Amino acid sequence: xxxxxxxxxxxxxxxxxxxxxxxxxxxxxxxxxxxxxxxxxxxxxxxxxxxxxxxxxxxxxxxxxxxxxxxxxxxxxxxxxxxxxxxxxxxxxxxxxxxxxxxxxxxxxxxxxxxxxxxxxxxxxxxxxxxxxxxxxxxxxxxxxxxx
Length: 148
Known about the structure:
- The protein is of the alpha+beta class.
- It has one domain (6-142).
- The chain has three helices and three strands, in the order H-H-H-E-E-E.
- It has a three-stranded antiparallel sheet with strand order 1-2-3.
- The longest helix has 44 residues, at 26-69.
- The N and C termini lie far apart (101 Å).
- 18% of the residues are buried.
- The model has no long low-confidence stretch (mean pLDDT 82).
């Protein structure tokens, strides 16, 4: 096998340099775009998971506060066969007291025999920059029942 002549070799080297110069930086751009996409996906997973967990916490706390509110039964309505009626103002105060004791904020009201509590929890994203604090809201309700 014979080696290519000098002019042919020079042509191959020049062509190779031209191709290398045209592709310079393409790997860096690809890596930059890929890392940005991975970072955004990680942000969605992490911050989305935190938001779902906060919503679940808000619902659990609201339900617990509503149960605490149902303990405020109007004593004049208690009889041996049925649970007493909820005293609306006292039920709302008891639910608010529960929320304050647990360090949460929310609203509480009584509608008939049902105590309804709504809790809001602020959630600050960790990775998704540029998105302000979001609010996770949960609502819970409870009715008094007579135990055995």
